[in-house]
């Protein structure tokens, strides 16, 4: 597989791991007794919606994966639970980092 194809495939895996992470967060919140409605959560990579109304949008993964090959990226997570916001700066969204963190169980 060409290098570009490998990067694209890795990015698609990262996109799917992010959507799974939102579902895991919802489970952890429920077990902690915190009110959280998965149907109100949304995840966007750039302007591409990957998770909304309680379900992942896997069909958008290729578009999001293409965006993830860029240098400066925006990932938005809306928990639909209020008006507070936070900004996180990071430099490691490599496939290895995502794989390691996707293995965590809540």
Produce a short descriptive summary:
With 106 residues, the chain is an alpha+beta fold. The protein has three helices and four strands; from the N terminus they run H-E-E-E-H-E-H.
What features would you describe in this structure?
The chain is an alpha+beta fold and 106 residues long. It has one domain (3-102): Ubiquitin-like (UB roll). 42% of the residues lie in helices and 14% in strands. The chain is built from 3 helices and 4 strands; from the N terminus they run αβββαβα. The chain has helices at residues 3-31, 61-68, 95-102; strands at 42-45, 48-52, 55-56, 75-78. The chain has a 4-stranded antiparallel sheet. A hairpin with a 2-residue loop joins strand 1 and strand 2. The longest helix has 29 residues, at 3-31. It is globular, with a radius of gyration of 14 Å. The N and C termini lie far apart (35 Å).
Rg over CA atoms: 14 Å
The main β sheet shows up as: 4 strands, antiparallel
Alpha-carbon distance between the two ends: 35 Å
Could you name the CATH class?
A: Alpha Beta
In round numbers, the mean pLDDT is 76
What form results from the Cα inertia axes? globular
Order of helices and strands: HEEEHEH
Strand portion: 5-15%
Number of DSSP E strands: 4
Strand order, largest beta sheet: 3-2-1-4
Oligomer: single chain
* Global structural class: alpha+beta
Total of DSSP H or I helical runs spanning 4+ residues:
3
Measured as a percent range, the helix fraction is 40-55%
Tell me the number of structural domains: 1
CATH level-two architecture: Roll
pLDDT < 50 runs, ≥5 residues: none
């Amino acid at each position: 597989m060409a290098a570009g194809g490998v990067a694209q495939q890795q990015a698609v895996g990262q996109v799917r791991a992010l959507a799974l992470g939102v579902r895991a967060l919802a489970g952890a919140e429920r077990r902690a007794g915190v009110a959280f409605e998965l149907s109100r959560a949304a995840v966007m990579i750039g302007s591409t919606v990957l998770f909304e109304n309680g379900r992942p949008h896997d069909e958008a993964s290729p578009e999001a994966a293409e965006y993830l090959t860029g240098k400066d990226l925006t990932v938005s997570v809306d928990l639909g639970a209020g008006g507070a916001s936070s900004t996180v700066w990071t430099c490691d969204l490599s496939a290895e980092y995502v794989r390691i963190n996707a293995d965590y169980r809540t």
